[in-house]
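Predicting holo structure, adenosine-5'-triphosphate bound.
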Amino acid sequence: MTEPALVVRSLCKNYGGFAVTRNVDLELPRGARHALIGPNGAGKTTLVGLISGAIAANSGTIELFGRDITTVSAAQRVKQGLVRTFQVNSLFPHLSVFQNIFLACSEARGTSQRMLGRTSGQKPIIGQVEAILDMLGLSADAGRPVATIAYGRQRLVELGIALALEPRVLLLDEPAAGVPSVEVPLLIHAIDRLGEDITILLIEHDMQIVQRFARTMTVLAEGQVIASGAPDVVMASEQVRSVYLGKSGHQRFESGKAHA
Ligand SMILES: Nc1ncnc2c1ncn2[C@@H]1O[C@H](COP(=O)(O)OP(=O)(O)OP(=O)(O)O)[C@@H](O)[C@H]1O
Ligand SMILES: [Mg+2]
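Done. Tokens:
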């Protein structure tokens, strides 16, 4: 019962002759709040794709709660509680906030819903949608088309869709990407409120978000893990600082944006 939530061992991915993921090891105990950082192109999104099953690895293994899922389909991984969000929005922009989350809840339950109306058979789903909207502070936006709400709130809808899939392990790929800074606290609060029963891997460039969120972290550079462990130890690593800081990067790190 004490297996880690997620274990990645020696994971490799090549495109043509180009190694994008190189022998990556990662271990998330249950309830982890683990940040994955690294410069643009380091292979963070690719790693999320490999773990979620969207991309097939060339070699290595992935275990979810002690079960080998390396060759399990992406859809099956979702059913086993492994859920990801995307760096770029993947919502139905003309449907309402409610409808977007409703569709995800319906799909997760395997109900074939041809109608989005509120009929009695849909009551449990409606209850689930309302609970998610409430938790994310989106109830007032429920009837609005997603395209018409603030971008930070659209990212919350994306998180709501992930929650509709009842994740046990949640992979969040830059949830605050493109969100104006005034709206970032919305996302931080929402992530803060996720229960300890959900193990979280968060990719994020904004170091203020990382420092607030992470109990442990991993740094990727050119597809390889260059440091992993407690945030203060990782951030103090010479190798990490040299990857990020170079000659002029000092200010970038200190100002909160970890772009190389
Ligand atoms: N389908 C693909 N075919 C070829 N190369 C790819 C493919 N997908 C990603 N890459 C390359 O793999 C590397 C890692 O890309 P990835 O998107 O995983 O980086 P990232 O760390 O998520 O970057 P960012 O911080 O910009 O989101 C990049 O060099 C990218 O060009
Ligand atoms: Mg990425």
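The first strand starts at residue 6 and ends at 15.
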